[in-house]
Amino acid sequence: xxxxxxxxxxxxxxxxxxxxxxxxxxxxxxxxxxxxxxxxxxxxxxxxxxxxxxxxxxxxxxxxxxxxxxxxxxxxxxxxxxxxxxxxxxxxxxxxxxxxxxxxxxxxxxxxxxxxxxxxxxxxxxxxxxxxxxxxxxxxxxxxxxxxxxxxxxxxxxxxxxxxxxxxxxxxxxxxxxxxxxxxxxxxxxxxxxxxxxxxxxxxxxxxxxxxxxxxxxxxxxxxxxxxxxxxxxxxxxxxx
Length: 241
Prior knowledge:
Protein name: Glycerol operon regulatory protein
GO biological process, one term: negative regulation of DNA-templated transcription
Structural class: alpha+beta
CATH superfamily of the largest domain: GAF domain
CATH class of the largest domain: Alpha Beta
Order of helices and strands: HHHEEHEEHHHEEEHH
Number of strands: 7
GO molecular function, one term: DNA binding
Domain HTH iclR-type: 1-58
Keywords: Activator, DNA-binding, Glycerol metabolism, Transcription, Transcription regulation
């Protein structure tokens, strides 16, 4: 296994491919051993051979892509955990993808727990700050399609009452303004979401706080927005996770 990995690394280092003899030297392997491993790796799809030169195959590229995604996911998790600690609130990262609200990552702690998903988060976008922020970024057709599939309904006594009232609210949200909801999804909880500009994908970062800390909500949201501005390039990479 170790020798096969050395060969794969040797191939990856040769942008324009390399013959077996060169790869054997690069990997520090005897030529017969290198030939055997190259044949096996080619058969398994990790390499492909063209005119006597070896290149990375589809299987190796899939591994590389998966590893890059894991690294990006880890990077985003670390960033959210850092913000959770300095802001003192759970931090959420969500996107709108293929017609659905997807919470991609949450950083919370025993002292600052995330909101419990007691009603399906995807179906109740009208009732929480994450969903409202994402819906506010959609075009009229995409938003209408979403609300046709997931109609506005009361989740708590504070939930927006109908689609007309929701549309009025969403249309009044400023381009980079935090979206705030108070006890609309979960009683005793207030939330704020920050819209993200990441290509054509609607995305958001959000925080939640217990109701008795509601006076902290907007200052904490502004702090999160400042932090996002410093690391937007890093976050943009995460759009594919």
